[in-house]
Design goal:
InterPro entries: HTH_LacI, Lambda_DNA-bd_dom_sf, Peripla_BP/Lac1_sug-bd_dom, Peripla_BP_I. It holds the Pfam family Peripla_BP_1. Keywords: DNA-binding, Transcription, Transcription regulation. About 45% of the residues lie in helices and about 15% in strands. With about 350 residues, the chain is an alpha/beta fold. It has three domains: about 60 residues, 434 Repressor (Amino-terminal Domain) (Orthogonal Bundle); about 130 residues, Response regulator (Rossmann fold), CATH 3.40.50; about 130 residues, Response regulator (Rossmann fold, 3-Layer(aba) Sandwich), CATH 3.40.50. The strands form two sheets. Strands 2-1-3-4-5-11 form a six-stranded parallel β-sheet, with helices on both faces. Helix 6 packs across helix 14, helix 9 runs parallel beside helix 10 and helix 11 crosses helix 12.
Length: about 350
């Protein structure tokens, strides 16, 4: 049977007679090839010559061709979807947009599409993961806000769902991940404050149920001991508290007799609040108190040039997470799907 496309049907699509999206028949009409040949060329089938593959793929890009997901799923059992399960409250300083951008850029050359599956802190974080698996609505999952013994990791492992985590677990299950070295960050931050002559430091830490809390606390404690500094405990606030809460609690801490003269901040959003708390208490940043903060977008020096910052590349994290989950889908070795990015040097404002 001839797989050539009927000219009148495809011509209508190309010339605007139809408003439906371009199909394989559209590409076949424009290239003079059969639908089967076009389909194989789009899949990089080795039996199709390189020149033909390139011509078909160029035309497909030019006309905005996208495979029909329902048809792909019927033929292959795949959705060509990666689900990013994201806390909807992870939002100041561009974290969410940069993470999505990084993932999307890495998926762009592949057949996969990104779908964001949101949840809030008031919901069970396992529920959206369970939904994705029970409905078979994605081929792979990316999760963040990782706990040392994370029930989502256990559930996906038990159900054979390929996944990658933004953070590390400590539960005896090897899995793909990308993480930022928060232990190294805290050590560098304390070292900088020590060099500035600060003696009494407070840590605005992550919530204690998250893996990176332990990493950051360990680095902070090690560096305090190394430089002979003392800690001013600040357990009432975490980076997940509201800006108003952190501001109020920081001001209260600074009005105590044994106040801190330096802060290590675990997140840029929390640093906005720390600066406000310092000023509410009547102190001057850079004179009475210094702050070293992690930041995921270059905004903090616009707030106060006296801040010291360490950059975390969230777009890189997104790209690495996409690479990891795609690698898991393809059955690649786990060790090659685990990555840890190092903090940049502490930066001061240079005008």
């Amino acid at each position: 049977m001839n797989d050539k496309t009927a000219p009148d049907e495809s011509a209508a699509q190309v010339t605007g007679g139809e408003t439906s999206p371009p199909t394989l028949k559209t590409i076949a009409f424009m290239t003079g090839l059969g639908v089967t040949t076009v389909s194989r060329a789009l899949k990089d089938a080795p039996e199709i010559g390189a020149a033909t593959r390139q011509r078909v793929q160029l035309v497909a890009r030019q006309i905005g061709y996208r495979p029909n997901r329902a048809g792909v799923r019927l033929r292959t059992g795949k959705t060509n979807v990666i689900s990013l399960v994201l806390n909807t409250e992870e939002q100041i300083g561009g974290f969410v947009s940069d993470l999505i951008y990084g993932i999307s850029e890495a998926l762009a050359p592949t057949p996969y599409h990104l779908v964001v599956t949101p949840y809030s802190r008031t919901n069970d974080p396992l529920e959206p993961v369970r939904y994705v698996i029970e409905t078979a609505s994605a081929d792979g999952v990316i999760i963040s806000h990782i706990e040392p013994d994370d029930p989502r990791v256990r559930y996906m492992t038990e159900h054979g769902m390929p996944f990658a985590t933004h953070g590390r677990t400590h539960m005896g299950i090897e899995h793909p991940f990308h993480d930022f070295d928060n232990r190294a960050y805290a050590r560098e931050a304390v070292q900088k404050l020590a060099a500035l002559g600060r003696k009494r430091l407070a840590l605005l830490a992550p919530p204690s149920n998250l893996s990176y809390y332990t990493h950051m606390r360990d680095g902070f404690a090690d560096a305090l001991m190394e430089h002979g500094l003392s800690e001013v405990p600040f357990p009432t606030a975490t980076v997940d508290h509201s800006i108003e809460d952190i501001r109020k609690l920081a001001a209260e801490l600074l009005l105590r007799p044994n106040r801190p003269d330096g802060f290590v901040s675990g997140a840029g959003a929390g640093t906005f609040a720390l600066v406000a708390g310092v000023e509410d208490a009547g102190f001057k940043l850079g004179q009475d108190v210094d702050i070293v903060s992690k930041q995921t977008s270059k905004l903090l020096h616009l707030l106060r040039p006296q801040l010291y910052v360490v950059n975390e590349d969230v777009r890189l994290a997104g790209a690495e997470l996409a690479r990891a989950v795609l690698g898991r889908i393809a059955g690649r070795d786990l060790a090659s799907l685990q990555s840890l990015s190092q903090p940049s040097a502490v930066e001061a404002y240079e005008g």
